[in-house]
Specification:
alpha+beta, Arc Repressor Mutant, subunit A, Alpha-Beta Plaits, 2 domains, 4-stranded antiparallel sheet, 5 helices, elongated
Length: 160
């Protein structure tokens, strides 16, 4: 791979393998990564640095098991805005960014303006968030909540 990676199309098979492996286990050492890719440790290090510089690899995190910390309830919340003016949208998006219970937020096409994924300990915590926080925002006209009964698939890996 050249040091000038600009997009996904510029990636070779070794780069793609590195990305897949790091999505599964970001704690892999450069030596372990190199062994699985079939390259030298120094080459893997350079490739990882180039992928980071290109913005293809971003931050490294540890995933938390929500059940282990008592966050068992996933709520998908559709939000309808009062206004679609850019200031209202910016205000709402900045507000959502400050809400730790909201773990994902998508701007949507169709009937609803946003879809939030909210993780809470129980229905009472969600009710409090919905009534006192979310519906209290001046840009929000309404919301519809959908409680997940179970999670049948969850991954953070992006398909290559």
């Amino acid at each position: 791979m050249s040091q000038n990676v600009k997009s996904f199309r510029d990636l070779d098979a070794a780069d793609r393998k590195i990305i897949m492996l790091l999505q599964e286990d970001a704690t892999l050492s450069h030596a372990a990564l190199a062994e699985q890719v079939g390259a030298s440790s120094a080459s893997c290090w350079r490739r990882v640095k180039a992928l980071e510089a290109a913005g293809i690899l971003t931050r490294t995190v540890r995933l938390v098991n929500p059940h282990a910390i008592g966050r068992d309830v996933n709520v998908l919340c559709n939000v309808r805005m009062r206004s679609h003016a850019s200031e209202a949208r910016r205000s709402f998006e900045a507000f959502v960014d400050t809400q730790p219970l909201v773990v994902e937020c998508f701007s949507m096409s169709g009937e609803w303006d946003y879809l939030l994924r909210v993780i809470v300990a129980d229905v009472q915590e969600y009710n409090s968030f919905l009534m006192q926080t979310l519906l209290g925002h001046s840009a929000v006209a309404g919301a519809a909540s959908h409680f997940a009964l179970s999670m049948t698939k969850y991954t953070t890996s992006i398909p290559l």
